[in-house]
Structures are given as structure tokens and as C-alpha cells.
Amino acid sequence: MSASRAAHAPPLRLAVVGSGPSGFYAASRVLQSFDRSKGTGDDGVEVHMFERLPTPFGLVRYGVAPDHPEVKNVENKFTEVASDPRFRFFGNVCVTASNDEPPPPGSLSVDITIPQLAPYYTHILFAYGASESRPLGIPGSGPKELRNVFSALKFVEWYNGHPDAHNPANDDEFSLNRVDGSKIRRAALIGAGNVALDVARVLLRQSASAPVDESLAKTDVPSPVLDALRTWKVEEVNLYVRRDAAHLAFTNKELREMLNLPHVAFRPVPEDQLDPAIQQVSTLTEAGQKRAMTRLLGQLKKGSKLSYAQNEAHIPRWGLHLLRSPAALHGTDDPVPALRSVDWNVTEIGADNRAVIKGEQVSSDEDLLISSVGYRSVPLRGEKDTTMQVPFDKTRYVIPNIRNRVVDDEGKVQPGMFVSGWLATGPVGVIVSTMFDAFGVADELVKEWRAGVQGTEPPPTLCAQVGIREALREAPEALRGQRTVSYDQWLAIDRAERDRGQALGKSREKFLTVAEMLRVIE
Ligand code: NAP
Hints:
Blueprint: H1 3-7, E1 13-17, H2 21-33, E2 46-50, H3 59-62, H4 74-82, E3 87-90, E4 93-96, E5 110-113, H5 114-117, E6 123-126, E7 132-133, E8 149-151, H6 152-159, E9 186-190, H7 194-206, H8 223-230, E10 236-241, H9 252-259, E11 265-266, H10 271-281, H11 287-302, E12 317-322, E13 324-331, E14 339-349, E15 355-365, E16 368-371, E17 375-376, E18 401-402, E19 405-407, E20 413-419, H12 422-425, H13 431-454, H14 487-504, H15 514-520
Parallel strand pairs: 1-2, 1-6, 2-3, 4-5, 6-20, 8-16, 9-10, 9-16, 10-12, 11-12
Antiparallel strand pairs: 7-17, 13-14, 14-15, 18-19, 19-20
NADP nicotinamide-adenine-dinucleotide phosphate (NAP) binds next to helix 7.
């Protein structure tokens, strides 16, 4: 390596696609790595973040439950990152693979393709998360087959005011806004993860049947959603779980919150189901897991603050139906049928701890079904383009990668392309684990860059793929004069939402459509 090469090395310019925790933590770590005050040399690094919506923060804004506002404090840290002069936010910009596929109906975002971005960046980090729910794939569960059947993703987006869930172009008899709450008494949830508990909590807190729990009214749940939920008469929420109590996916803190809900009772898990699980967990060899599961099962054994027996005449209540996996959904005879009942396969635990269907079925009448069996990622829109393909694994629903470097079907590294967060790993882990993952990706990226800059071979870059050695130091041409949203403009939207909230005695009143958000900054 020559000193002159390092001296004339082109600066690192990173495009981050997605503004959730993964994108923001990676951006902050990259910028920190070039902190002049730490003696690591400021090499002209710049980070540009692209976000499909005018609003940043991804799942922090649209996924975290409204009654967990403390989790949303990370937004302050992200705003600090955004105040770095080397950082720039481009909201309302959808990064696509090509222009082959039109945007969804009602979309107001500006499209930019990977080939259009490439000349401006040495690297691109895909961090756009998991925006689809895993399908159930059983009769009756297809899109728009039955009313009152939703994925947890849709329900969470609805109560968090996500513009996709409130897009007038999607409003039809299958939308959450049109649910006749007076008919919703029994709700079935499929899955036993923390998302299922978030959904159950919201249903039980705000239902018309709860004597008094207006705690959501002060949060950022949109007023129209609160009004709708107040008409729902949920008396019973049941979580249907395909494995036994030893394999529940939710965690202790979230279970405690459910068991302590005022005016809500938990139906005890039968002893002949709980005791064998406690016994099984006591033999676990991994100490942390053993401790966590022992505590979890202990909580289940103790039950809710409000005892179920005491609450028999009261409503609402919740419970677990273990060893049940969904088999088929049945509808009413209405012209647009609504959910009437669900068939469940009775399962047992197989040798490899999987749920095995025994052959026997049971049915239950249900008014509402929310399937909470996990999220999955999607490829970039217009993925048919072959000039600069972004690989996507359609069996695991992730961008294939080796140590977060994007690779094609044959394992060949795509120069300058990285992936982080749920898009790289699948939809598991909380914000802290996403943070560590993002830091690791940023460190790899910077390490590779430095090795290239100091070595004899130039660092592998995105811009080199389109024949450009030094990435252009400006905003991409395709975005000039377009309706993109800067970070300062987002802060104006943020202020307007807080002001609207203050007038209503709540933390924030979100804008529910992109059009309203853009109007604030016109
Ligand atoms: P999850 O924790 O992976 O839980 C998914 C649940 O769905 C599991 O009980 C799983 O059962 C079940 N399931 C999957 N496929 C199924 C099928 N075909 N039929 C029936 N059941 C099926 O996913 P999540 O609840 O969506 O949460 C995602 C991540 O976000 C988790 O890491 C979670 O901890 C985190 N999160 C955290 C919080 C919080 O900290 N408060 C809040 C929300 C989310 P099996 O175990 O049998 O596969």
C-alpha cells in the first residue's frame, strides 16, 4: 500500500434503505467510526437514509405497542444521529429494484431505482425490515376471504396509525375500520409471541366490555381507532398455541403486564399441562433459558391478579389453548362472509420439539381471528431488473448474506451491498439485539472499507459497478425537485402531531395519511 493511495482515497458514502432501529443504529456507528475527535480521521464520510414514508423510525413508530412509550425513547437518540451534518434523511422515497412494477394504489412516494442510486454511493445497506405477515396457508385464511380475519401486522399497524392501514385506497368491507365491534365478543389469536400479547393487551384494555381502562386514550393511538375499539365488545381473548407451555415465545415482563391488567382475569392453565412443562424446563441445560422459562411458568401457575373464579361473572378474560394449530376457517352465510368458526388440529410435541398433528380436530366459534405467527421481509419492488439485482431468498424471506454482505444464489458477494436487522436474520429479537446486530454490520463495513483504502486493491464499491470510481458527492439526480421529506421537515410533522395530541390530552395525534403529512410541510 502506498501512503499516497490512502491520502487520495475516495470518501465512504453510504446509502441506508429503511429508517428503523437497524438503519439508524448502523448509521450512527458508521459516523462514530469516522469521528475526528477520536483520532480515526474524518474521511469525508456521508450517510444518506432513504425511507418510503415521510416519517422515520419504522417499527419504533409503527410496531412498538402504544402502552410501552418508554421503548420509543430511542427516537431521541436517532434524532441526535440525524443532527450530524454528515447525515441526510430522504423521507417519502421508495427505493426499488427497477421501474418495472407500478407503485401500489394511492402511493405518493417518489421512486428511485438501485441503478439510479449507485453512482452516488460506495455502499448501500438494506435495513428495511419485515413488512409482511407470514401467511397461515389454511382454507379460509386467504386475503379478503372472510371479514374479521386479520394478521397481527395489520392490527398493529392500524392501532399505531400506519398510513398503509389507513390508506383510503385500501378501505373496503375487509378493513379494520369497518369491523362491527358489537359483534366481536370472542377473539382468537394464533401464536404465543410478544406481538400476540401486545394485541391481546390492546383488545382487552380498550374493549367496551372492560369496566374502566381508558389508559390507551392518553397514548398515541389515533382517535378514530380509539373510537372504533370502544365499540368492540371483546369478552374473551384466547391464544391458540401449537406447542406446549415449555415452548411459549413471549417473555416474562410482557406476561406479567398481562396478568396484572386491571379488570381482566386469566383462565388458569390446567395442572396436567403446566406441571409436565415445569418438570421439562427444570432439565434445561442453558442456565439463562432455564431461569427465564421457570419464572414464566411460575407466573402462569400463580395466575392473574384478578382471579378467574372471582371474575366469572365479569368480563373480559383471556387464556391459552395449548397444543392447537389452525386447520381451517369457516364463514357465515352473509353475502360478504364473516368468520364464524375455526377448526384446530390437536398437536403433540415430536422428538425434535416440533408440533406434530395427531389427526384429531376440535372446533371453536370465534368472532375475530388475529394471526400472530411472525413477520417476513419482501424483495424490493420491481425485482425483475437484471442490471443490478438485489438477491432475495424466497424460502427464508431474507436478503441472503454472509456476515451481512449480500450474496447471490452462488454465494458470490455483491460489491458494496450490506444487509442488517430482520431483513438479514428473519423477524426475531428486540431493539437491543437489533442494535448489536447493526453495530456489528457497521463495523464490518468500515473495516472492509479501511482495508481496501489502505491495501493494494481498491475497496469493493457500489459505484464501481456502474463504472464510477469516486461516488458523486451530491443528492441523487432522480430526487432533485421531487417531494422528498428532509429531517427538519419530519420535525415539523412531529411538532404538528404533538400539538394536535396536546389539544386532545394525549401524547400525540398521528397523521394517518401521507397526504396529510405532506400538507404540513407544503
Ligand atoms: P415470535 O416471538 O417468533 O412468535 C411467533 C409465534 O407464532 C410462536 O408462538 C410460534 O410458535 C407461532 N407460530 C409460528 N408459525 C405458526 C404456525 N404456522 N401456526 C401456529 N403458530 C405458529 O414472533 P412475534 O411475536 O411476531 O415477535 C417477533 C419478535 O419481536 C420477537 O423476538 C419478540 O420478542 C419481539 N417483540 C418484542 C416485544 C417486546 O419486547 N415487548 C414486543 C413485540 C415483539 P412456535 O414457537 O411453535 O414456532
